[in-house]
Amino acid sequence: MFKECGIMLDSHGRDINYLRISVTGMCNLRCSYCMPEGGIKKKAHKEILSLETIEQIAFSAVDLGFQKIRITGGEPLVRKGIIDVIHQIAQLKSRGLKDLGLTTNGTLLSGYADELKKMGLTRVNISLDSLDAEKYSQITRGGKLSSVLEGIQAAKEAKLWPLKINVVLIGGFNDDEIEEFVNLTREDDVEVRFIELMPIGEASGWDREHFLSGTEILKRVPQLMPLAVKGQGAVARLYKLPNSKGRVGIISPLSNHFCNYCNRIRITPDGKLKPCLHSDLELDIRNYGEDYERFLLDGVFAKPNRHSMQNEDYEPVLRNMNEIGG
Fold first, then answer.
1. Helix (H, G, I), strand (E, B) or coil at 60
2. pLDDT in tens, 297-308
3. Phi and psi torsions of 316, nearest 5°
4. What does the pLDDT read at residue 221?
5. Which among 157, 228, 161 has a CA at the least distance from the CA of 189?
């Protein structure tokens, strides 16, 4: 690993500058590919990272040269004190932080969007796997589509840009809505991102027909035009309908991996650092005391050259997505 002038290269020559911090495994939804039907047992306070520790990790990361931090969950807006955390981390923009994002299911966002913007949040990604109210309730086990749509509108009004809508592509469930999702970009300056379903946690035992390649989007909507990828570490291949205001992104970790330019590491709510989403390798913060820089540096050094999902001997990651942060 090589660090100089704010650049951290891992052992494979990639600049690691993006940290995802999952602040809670709890969520107000129960998406079937993400969380057990009965939910999860709430962890004791001592089992999860304190808000102060999350802030200290963020400070150390920016001092090391990380330029992008994303707050995730579970659903991060159910974590008490999250607004203050956003505000504290946003202060790091004066020290080199360029982007502070939040991934949310959007159901609570209408009540938080304005304040999040005022506290320094740059942007939001909103998870939305169906535009049909009944199907949305089915996949989330009781969620209300109207709440998400209100959250999307609130994010637009608060100017949390660029606004991205994450759609997990699931064969036999929402692949019949591909065109409808793409059409959201015609008159609206949003980026709709289709993400291949990954065999992690709850979804690891699903039937193969549910796992569709991202190329299915281009088959269904052949008029999509490719755009140049901008920025190091971009994982989405970008497309655009003729004369549309928004864009379409395709994220294909299975069929077209982006390991060669992966620039991120992840921290779980219980203080484990995952150098790779698709590996069970984790570093425990409890082995580092308060040496958060060494914790992060060791995580960068431990990043594998690529994930092994396509290998015959691949063992699915044991954690559910709500415990990792995606």
1. helix
2. 999 999 999 875
3. -55, 145
4. 98
5. 161
198 annotated ligand-binding residue: yes
Please name the residue ranges forming H helices in the chain.
Answer: 51-64, 82-90, 113-118, 133-140, 145-157, 178-183, 215-220, 292-301
| Of residues 233, 279, 214, 200, the one with CA closest to residue 14 | 233
Please check if 43 is assigned to a binding site: no
User: Per the annotation, does 259 bind a ligand?
Assistant: yes
Owner of token pair 């994010």: 155
Q: Which of the following CATH numbers is that of domain 2-323: 3.20.20.70, 3.40.50.2300, 2.60.40.10, 3.90.550.10?
A: 3.20.20.70
Give the start-to-end residue ranges of the domains of the chain.
2-323
The answer on whether 140 is annotated among ligand-binding residues is no
Strands 283-284 and 99-104: unpaired
The answer to whether the annotation marks 5 as part of a ligand binding site is no
pLDDT tens, 248-272? 999 998 888 889 889 999 999 999 9
What is the number of alpha carbons within 13 Å of residue 280 lying toward its C-beta?
Answer: 9
User: Considering the entire predicted model, what is its pTM?
Assistant: 0.94
256, 271 Cβ separation under 8 angstroms: no
DSSP H/E element including 273: strand 272-274
| Residue 165 dihedral angles phi and psi, to the nearest 5° | -110, 120
Which residue ranges of the chain lie beneath pLDDT 50? 2
